Amino acid sequence: MSEMKSNKPTILVVDDSEMNRSILADILEEYKIMEAANGKEAVSLLEKYGAEIDLVLLDIVMPEMDGFEVLAIMNKYKWIEYIPVIMISAESVSSYIERAYELGVTDYINRPFDSMVVHRRVVNTIMLYAKQKKLVGMVTDQIYEKEKSSSLMVMILSHIVEFRNGESGMHVLHIHVMTEMLLKRLTEKTKQYGLTHADISLITTASALHDIGKINIAQEILNKPGRLTDEEFQIMKTHSMIGATMLKELPSYQEEPLVKVAYEICRWHHERYDGRGYPDGLKGEEIPISAQVVAMADVYKKAFSHEKAMEMILNGECGTFNPLVLECLKDIGSDLQEELEVNSLYTNSKQEMRNVADELLRRDELTASERTLRLLEYERTKYQFFADMSQEIQFEFTAEPSMVNMSAWGAKSLGIDEISMTPFRNAKILNQFGKKNMLGFAECVKKTTPQKPVTQYECSLPLDGEYRWCRVIFRSMWTTDETETFTGVIGKIMDIHEERKKVSELEHKATHDNMTGLVNHVHAKELITQLLSGNPNRKFALVIFDLDHFKQANDNYGHYFGDQVLKHVAEKLNKSVRSTDISARIGGDEFLIFIEYDNNLEMIIDRIFHSLTGQFQKFKISLSMGIAQTEVCGRDYAHLFCCADKALYVVKNSGRGRYCTYDHSMQEQF
Amino acid sequence: MTIQECYDLMGGDYGEVAGRFVTEARVEKFAKMFLRDTSFETLKQTMGQKDYKEAFRAAHTLKGVCQNLALKSLDGPVVELTDILRGYETLDVSGETGERMESLMDAIETQYGVIISAIGQL
Fold first, then answer.
1. Cβ atoms of residues A195 and A183 within 8 Å
2. Mean pLDDT score of chain B, rounded to an integer?
3. Of A367-376, A401-410, A635-644, which gets the smallest average pLDDT?
4. pLDDT for B83 beyond 60
5. Residues A289 and A192: beta-carbon distance below 8 Å
6. Which chain A residue has the Cα nearest residue B64?
7. Hey, is the C-beta of A412 within 8 angstroms of any chain B C-beta?
8. What is the DSSP letter of A586?
9. How confident is the model over A8-22, as a mean pLDDT?
């Protein structure tokens, strides 16, 4: 990245032959050269570096994505407008050359090329575009400056007039708002005046100047309380012509659109549609539309309520107007009132800033200034640095073009490319991540919103060839304008395998008996309760047994031997029950089995009983076993356990070494 | 061996390439790069697999390289083969075309060998 900061222009050489790339790099040794071996790589570099690439040298026939496809993408994203492309190809077929020019290439060089020719054309193109880039930057800044200063001057001027008029600054603001709204409505209704956004903005700005001629009217007349005499009124009427003359006599700026529009407005904002106005008595469409609209805005008097002012204008008490403009006024009626109230809250400068910003946004050919690009570059460097440092798997997905960018480390670990186009159709990605996970990612991200953009997903992924549990964190990205369009996702993948393993180990420890590895009593109870309530129509049996004379094994052969016996029994037990059954150690030499049966309980019990009895080294294993069936004892765990215990007691009292199933006759046992 | 002698040996046009690349040192440097170029191997392999789409690309790349270096003796058959392979979508290799392609590949392989050994002696 640090190399990117050098002042050398950067040339992207796209050619599938390494040798051709080397030759070009050699010829253009004074430039910084980036290389791409196919169209796909070229597009991702263009996406990554944007305007930092000063020129592209592009081959046509290449694997993965050919030169024409690259040009198509450069057109789609408008990169071609600021990154020049010189095509170099062995194709001399004229249709190829024509197509290349149609797709916006600056130059076409045939192979075999002359090194001097390539060099000269590259130098020329870069110089030409460097100038253009600089100009675009300058124009952007100048337009901004100019808009700002002219609006400011207009504001100052009109305030001087208002100040002399003894009016509040609100009048100018109201005229401003109303002119703009009327014009916008007018363009919705008709195309006859051919008004563009720029025109509307201009007329609106110039509207503030409508009364500058009043600067030349004597204070006594201008601010005379009460009615003017006919003579005084004649003098007052001269203000429109005076204003126009002032503008006409400006020493320069006669060609400025703002001055031209302001002239129209000053001179004709007291003309009437029926031809009875002043100073020229223009009639109908002879009056420029700018003056027609400002004239209406001017008579919307601040002294009255909105309703009253509207009524007076619509009834013709304030002069005759273009019927179309009157319709516009009716249309905007209630919005106007609201807008005027809202605008009174804004300071003038805020209003101005808003207009300038609007205007700049409308100029879509000036999408980003050099300054913006520099800021972006800074952010990108920062991001890259942290990504490289952290050794985390970070990624970035852009929706348009559909592309995944993986941090170098992550791509290597996951065995995918750093850059992959259309990831949902990319074989490598689908293979490594699995289709199910990819769909899971998409589902997960679809649920995010601009307000809640972060989400996560856990799955097993192959890191360095070994499947490990990972947590994938996504943050969806959205445009900041009103549309809040989804633009992509950034995120990272964390290895949580160890964490997860530890948690499941702890879980196992908490639910199992340490020595035998069987489920412990507490957990067995939970599992059994679940089974009983979840399967009300199935038959189960709860079995408890202990080892006869186990105490002797401990006493005669030591506790270590005793433990061996218990482990042996647990192992046998595990083998003799089905995986869906539950076998647990209750404690000491007491065990529990929970099994499902159909009509064959006797047989199952007999098999288990006999597989457990037998010899373990010096110790003869003999069992006493009590059984309780849900058919007889109901489905309450505690009661089942109690019944099985009673049956076991019966066995113990009658000489041990056998099993017994609970029946109601045993109820009286205790 | 000088680069000029090398060009004579491998049937290249030294005059032309020197005109385009200006210095002798540069011509020699680029000629040596030819040893690293893999488009011939790709061509041979893809032709063997009858993958004519990829073969076209490889032939096209090799053509570009030949023209860059003014390797006239190799350029002729490579250009002809490229033009045949350009129609890879509808290519019928059963008749004369197939035979022609085979003999062109033979010519290319022979010439390629000559060039490689000539550059190897630089």
1. yes
2. 89
3. A367-376
4. yes
5. no
6. A90
7. no
8. E
9. 89
Give me the interface pTM, i.e. the ipTM.
Answer: 0.80
Å from A48 to nearest chain B CA? 27
8 A C-beta contact, residue A86 and residue A133: no
The residues near A252 (Cβ < 8 Å, ≥ 6 apart) are: none
**Are A410 and A395 in contact, with CB atoms under 8 Å apart?**
yes
Number of domains chain B is built from: 1
pLDDT of residue A381: 64
Pairwise CB contact (< 8 Å): A26 & B29:
yes
pLDDT digits (tens, 9 = 90+) for A444-503: 998 888 888 888 898 999 988 888 888 898 988 888 777 788 888 888 888 888 888 888
Shortest CA distance to A100 belongs to which of A62, A59, A133?
Answer: A59
Instruction: Please answer whether residues B25 and B19 qualify as being in contact, where contact means their C-beta atoms are separated by less than 8 angstroms.
Output: no
Residue in A26, A90, A115 closest to B64 by CB: A90
Dihedral-angle region of residue A319 (phi above 0 means left; psi in -120 to 50 means alpha; beta otherwise): left
**Which residues 39-68 of chain A have a CB within 8 Å of chain B?**
59, 61-63
Residue A350 pLDDT class (50, 70, 90 cuts): very low
Domain with B21 in it: what CATH number? 1.20.120
pLDDT per residue over A152-202, tens digit each? Answer: 566 666 656 665 565 555 677 788 889 989 999 999 998 889 888 878 888
List pLDDT tens digits, range B39-77. Answer: 899 999 999 998 999 999 899 989 988 988 899 999 999
For chain A, the first-to-last Cα distance in angstroms comes to 86
Is pLDDT at A349 greater than 50 in this prediction? no
DSSP alpha helix (H) spans, A166-256 = 170-189, 197-207, 219-222, 230-237, 239-248
- Tell me which residue range forms the domain holding B41: 3-120
Distance in angstroms (rounded) separating the CA atoms of residues A628 and A23 = 89
pLDDT at position A365 over 60: no
Ordered structural domains, chain A, with CATH: 2-138 (3.40.50.2300), 166-345 (1.10.3210.10), 391-502 (3.30.450.20), 512-669 (3.30.70.270)
| Chain A contact set for B29 (CB, 8 A) | 26
Give the closest-approach CA distance of B61 to chain A in angstroms.
Answer: 6
DSSP string, B54-87: HHHHHHHHHHHHHHHHT-HHHHHHHHHHHHHHTT
Q: What is the pTM of this model?
A: 0.39
Q: Please choose, from the candidates A650, A602, A598, A600, the residue with its C-alpha nearest in 3D space to the C-alpha of residue A625.
A: A650
Q: What integer pLDDT is reported at residue A345 of this predicted model? A: 45
Inter-chain CB proximity B20 and A114 less than 8 Å: yes
CA angle A663, A669, A670 (to 5 degrees): 135
Q: Is the pLDDT of residue A204 over 80?
A: yes
Candidates B53, B57, B61: best to mutate against A (most CBs of A within 10 A) is B61
Provide CB contacts within 8 A for A635, sequence distance 6+: A532, A533, A536
Q: In the structure encoding, which two tokens stand for residue A7, read together?
A: 């002042």
Backbone angles phi and psi of A109, in degrees to 5: -115, 130
Using a CB–CB cutoff of 8 Å, tell me whether B51 touches chain A: no
